[in-house]
Each structure stands twice: as structure tokens, then as C-alpha cells.
Amino acid sequence: MKIFNRARQRPSATWRQTTDRAFTLIGDGRLDDAGALLVRAADLEPWLSDSWFNLALLHKFRRDWESARTAGLRAVALLDRDHGAPDWWNLGIAATALQDWALARRAWQAYGLRVPTGEGPLSLDFGTTPVRLSPQGESEVVWGRRLDPARVEVLSIPLPSSGRRWGEVVLHDGAPHGERVADGVPYPVFDEIELWAPSPVPTYVVLVQAATEEDRDALERLVSEAGYAAEDWTSSVRLLCRACSESRMAADDGHTEHHDPHDDGQLGHLSHGGELWIPERECGVAAPAHLVRRLLDRWAAAAPEARAYRDLEEVC
């Protein structure tokens, strides 16, 4: 953990020792013990913005957003510079978690971002980005649309092990944790903090017989035109070790990529451009229960000699 010491006056040795010990405990997962030490550090040096920044950071780790907002406001009130301080970024995350949109706008603007004035949720064009779902468990990197500096709408269909669905909005951290390169462009990977808005759309897994890539593409296109999503997990899923997942990796395309940090193997991609195509594909489909089978039936009926499906199952 990095401790930010930005105040002009040097903190006491006791403050530094107490804070160092607290961050060691945070690294060991002992958040309650660390919290007691960081409260002590704030009592020792209440004039120091770092005292309150560190407490705000701890409350973020604990998902105690009210306390994170309170400590964050104390931290920014004591800052000795105008823009770019991480105190403002963490305050923006806490404000977004609490849907305190006025404070979120103020925090992002004070950090140095161009955020329009207004009321209600922010809706900005921050493009697409990869986000790591469930970073403390069987993490999975998927692609999503950035709604603002702290929220991503999931555009891929996550594997059921992540517990996430297509269309959900997740709150994410500000520090990138790895990169994905798509079409030569590097994209930072942000870690999910928590689910911000659930999706009512269930996830299904289905085995399809698609004679060609064009048949597979037709399924994805048909479901997309209905307002939902289908994804060929046989092509899009790669299993990587944690170190690889958290490094700079090339993405297969700009839309889908999943990772499991507990497996050192990598699924082979059959692919594009003349390589052997295997007709049986495992696909994820995100669509309402009343619609999913109708879409699959329409897809199969359009070319019955080349398309079929079986073993449709709701998984998340």
C-alpha cells in the first residue's frame, strides 16, 4: 500500500509508525485492527490531510461509504494543492456509491476532469473499458461502457462464476490494474468494487451447432437486434493465471474477454481466417425467459441444415 505524504509540515515519527503498521494490517486483511490505528493516527495529526485520506481509503475497502465520504471531505479540506489529488478521486467514488451527484461532480471537477454541471446521475461518453469482476475471487475481465469516472455498464456476458449479468452497472476503483490491448490501443483494466445497479436480464448457457462462423455471427446479431446479447464463449474465454491477467495482455477483439486467475492454462482459440472451425459452440445468451427460446428457434429455423441448439439452461 502506498501512503501519500503531501503536507508541508513533516508528521511525527509516531504518526508514521502507526500508519505504516495500519497499512501492513490492511495488507493482511485485518481491516478492523487497521481502522483503530488509523483513527489513532488522525487523533495524533488531525491537521494532516493524509490522516483523513488514509481513513477514507480504509472505509472504501470496507464499503462504508458514509464514513468514506465524511473522512474524504476532511481530507480535501486540508489539501495544499488544487487539482489531481487522489483524495478527490476517492471522494468521487464514495459520492457515486451514495448517489450524491452534486458532490461527485464537485470531486471530479476538483480532480481536474471536465464534468458538466447539472443534476442527477452523470452520463458521460468515456468509451469502452475492460473491468475485472469479483477481483478477490474467481475474477473475470469483461468489457463495458464507462458511464462516468467510477461506473461501468457490463457489455460482455459474464460467466456465471462471477455472479454478474450483462447490463449490470458496477462501481470500480480508480487505479488501473493491468491493461488490455485491442486494435493496437491500450485500455486500463479497472477492478470492480461492488455492484451498483443489478440487471433483471438472466444469463443462459446453450450448446449450439453452427456450421460456420457466419451462422454463429447470425445468432449474435439476431439477439442484439432484439435488444439483448449473445456471446460465443468457446471463442471469447481465455483462462489465465493471476499474474498474466493483471499484466498487459492483447485482447482478441474490442468487445469480449474473460479471465480466471486460478487456472494457468489457456483455452485454444479456433478461429478466424482459415483455421479449423468446430461447429459445436458453448454460448452465453442474455435475454428474458419468455424470449430466449423464441430467438434460438428463429435462428435455427432460418438455416435448419446448418444450425441447431440443445441444453439451454439458466445459469445466473
Can you describe this structure?
By secondary structure, the chain is an alpha+beta fold. It has two domains: 13-111, Serine Threonine Protein Phosphatase 5, Tetratricopeptide repeat, CATH 1.25.40; 121-316, no CATH class. The protein is built from ten helices and twelve strands. The protein has helices at residues 13-27, 31-44, 49-61, 65-77, 86-97, 101-111, 213-225, 233-236, 242-245, 289-301, and strands at 128-133, 140-148, 151-154, 169-172, 179-182, 185-188, 190-197, 203-210, 229-232, 248-250, 280-286, 307-314. The strands form three sheets. The protein has a five-stranded mixed beta barrel with strand order 1-2-3-4-7. Helix 2 packs antiparallel against helix 3 (49-61), helix 3 packs antiparallel against helix 4 and helix 5 (86-97) runs antiparallel to helix 6 (101-111). 39% of the residues are buried.
